[in-house]
Specification:
Structural class: mainly beta
Strand content: over 45%
Strand order of the largest sheet: 3-6-7-5-4
Number of helices: 1
Largest sheet: 5 strands, mixed
Distance between the termini: 12 Å
Length: 87
């Protein structure tokens, strides 16, 4: 489960390849961007902008790297893992 702003989403674990910290250089980016991940260009999207959610004030954000077939992409989230109802 991931949290973006005040919303929670489920990402199937069999699609997740890794979770990395979002570099600060991308914190104020457009809805989509690219980064070099160990020599490979990784496209990623900010889910808060895609779903038109109120931007989070969270300083530390993460990219969930997912793979579907031969394709990889990153999803920017505020929190991942065990998320309680209080969060």
């Amino acid at each position: 489960m991931v949290r973006v702003a005040d919303s929670k989403f489920v990402i199937p674990l069999n699609l997740v390849t890794e979770c990395i910290e979002l570099p600060e250089a991308f914190s104020q980016s457009d809805a989509a961007a690219f980064m070099n991940l160990r020599g490979e260009m990784l496209p990623f999207i900010f889910l808060e902008q895609i779903f038109q959610l109120t931007p989070s004030k969270q300083n530390r954000r993460s990219i969930i790297v997912v793979r579907y077939g031969q394709h990889k992409a990153g999803l920017v989230v505020d929190q991942y893992g065990r998320i309680s109802n209080r969060d």
